[in-house]
Amino acid sequence: MGKVTGFLEFERLEEGYEPVTKRLKNYKEFVIGLKPEEAKIQGARCMDCGTPFCNNGCPVNNIIPDFNDLVYTGDWRNAITVLHSTNNFPEFTGRICPAPCEAACVLNVNDDAVGIKSIEHAIIDRAWAEGWVVPQPAAVKTGKKVAIVGSGPAGLAAAQQLARAGHDVTVFEKNDTVGGLLRYGIPDFKMEKSHIDRRVKQMETEGVVFKTNTIVGELPKGSKVTNWATTTVTPEQLKKEFDAVLLSGGSEQSRDLPAPGRDLAGIHFAMEFLPQQNRVNGGGKVKDQIMATGKNVIVIGGGDTGSDCVGTSNRHGAKSVVQFELMPMPPEQENRELTWPYWPYKLRTSSSHEEGCEREFAIQTKEFMGENGKVTGVKTVRVEFKDGKFNEVPGSEQVLKADLVLLAMGFVNPVDTILAGFGVDKDARGNAKAATEDAGAYATNVEKVFAAGDMRRGQSLVVWAIREGRQAARSIDEFLMGASTLPR
Ligand SMILES: Cc1cc2nc3c(=O)[nH]c(=O)nc-3n(C[C@H](O)[C@H](O)[C@H](O)COP(=O)(O)OP(=O)(O)OC[C@H]3O[C@@H](n4cnc5c(N)ncnc54)[C@H](O)[C@@H]3O)c2cc1C
Ligand code: SF4
């Protein structure tokens, strides 16, 4: 274990941030990672618990006490081996995971949790800098062909595992570059895209073929889902040419707000706004980019996506940014006795909120107001949650100025026509139906077609997508070969 008395001697140390004035001038990452000697002290805080709740709280079951100890003793080389044994892409999760492992850490019962995420971040950044992350091509090829639809974290994790098991893997992506929401949802200031490019190179050397600008199946007419495909492949072609197909196309159907005035110009889904800025940051061109510059911006939706809209609007130079959340303001501190080791209900203030944003809770949008076809304001009402439903507070109506409204209320399900094209059954929430346990895990009702990530579980987290991609890869390997040595 770290240091026997480490948790008594040392305080938790948070990663640093560049000052707001500096970071708002660009889209670069601004988190200052721990120095090796700082990471060592943080590793020393780990108690190597008899039952490491952190390991269960982590969706990829990272072997956290082991890499904490290895960092404490300075064995960084083995620390990355342990970390990679459960997670293909720690540089993604070390940056953008909300760290359910830390909520579950035993030290979090009555002290500050071990800084697991900052240690993970330090290990993988050092591993890349030292040249320890190298391609691992399969020693023996199987001759089996696997198609993967969608290049988000689920598709990438599955592709890497399957290529390393010796299969010929082709990833189809409708957008112009690989990465899914890592590329075109999550802003660069949270995760720069060079981290994806580096992995794509590694995977190409391992034999993975990427076909970008290629859609499998079709979107409904007039769909606002991001799509830069120039080539279409039919589900039938895929089923005919490949021995197995994995659907990992994400949950891309944004939730709409069909209030009066929704058709006014200046009201957009978050996933129309964010991908454009990410594309420009990547050197691409966008015609008539949606800009927040000089505008009063209202972001509807209090989650991660909304917070990313806040950060991007402030970098554009918005005049004001207000974020709405329907639910009441959560408590600043969780009740740990009630919530530990689970994900606690508490107020979360992101780095984007700290950069400047007014947050309104228990507020509902009644109508979008406009002049000459353009949005000028939002009519709202306060709500109270009582008897299992939201009730309007009489006399609390208000109109807030708005020149740009961004809808960030989450995603309802995967695009219907893509699943229908394959004939895949859906669950009650409209996701691809596939169980995750036992033999045939992640298999859909259609012979040799599997599903994983947000497309199967609904909108979720990068770390869950990586877990599902890895587990689906094992299941596909078993289906193709009769047995698998890939980890579950
Ligand atoms: C703005 C935003 C911010 C987020 N921030 C965080 C965060 O900070 N931390 C976190 O853990 N999670 C975050 N998430 C959630 C996280 O990004 C997703 O849960 C995760 O990316 C899902 O991975 P996936 O591989 O299942 O799908 P996706 O990442 O959605 O990738 C699916 C890919 O499939 C492609 N595709 C779909 N259909 C087809 C088709 N028919 N043919 C070809 N290609 C197709 C899509 O273009 C897309 O590139 C965020 C989500 C959003 C929207
Ligand atoms: S729960 Fe916390 S203290 Fe215990 S092993 Fe995991 S990281 Fe270490």
Structure characterization notes:
The chain has 488 residues and is an alpha/beta fold. 34% of the residues lie in helices and 18% in strands. The chain contains 20 helices and 20 strands. Strands 5-4-3-8-20 form a five-stranded parallel beta sheet, sandwiched between helices. Helix 6 packs across helix 9 (116-130) and helix 10 (153-164) packs parallel to helix 20 (462-481). The longest helix is centred in the last third of the chain and has 20 residues, at 462-481. The radius of gyration is 23 Å and the shape is globular. The mean pLDDT is 97. The structure holds flavin-adenine dinucleotide and iron/sulfur cluster. Flavin-adenine dinucleotide is lined by residues 96-97, 149-155, 172-175, 180-182, 185-186, 190, 215-217, 248-250, 274, 304-305, 308, 418, 453-455, 459-463, 465.
Strand proportion, as a percent range, falls in 15-25%
Number of helices: 20
Arithmetic mean of pLDDT? 97
Can you give the helix content as a percent range? 25-40%
Ligands and ions found: flavin-adenine dinucleotide, iron/sulfur cluster
The tally of beta strands, per DSSP, is 20
As residue ranges, the low-confidence spans are: none
The shape, in one word, is: globular
What does the oligomeric state look like here? Answer: single chain
Biggest sheet record: 5 strands, parallel
Distance between the termini: 26 Å
Sequence of strands across the biggest β-sheet: 5-4-3-8-20
* Radius of gyration (Å): 23 Å
Label the structural class: alpha/beta
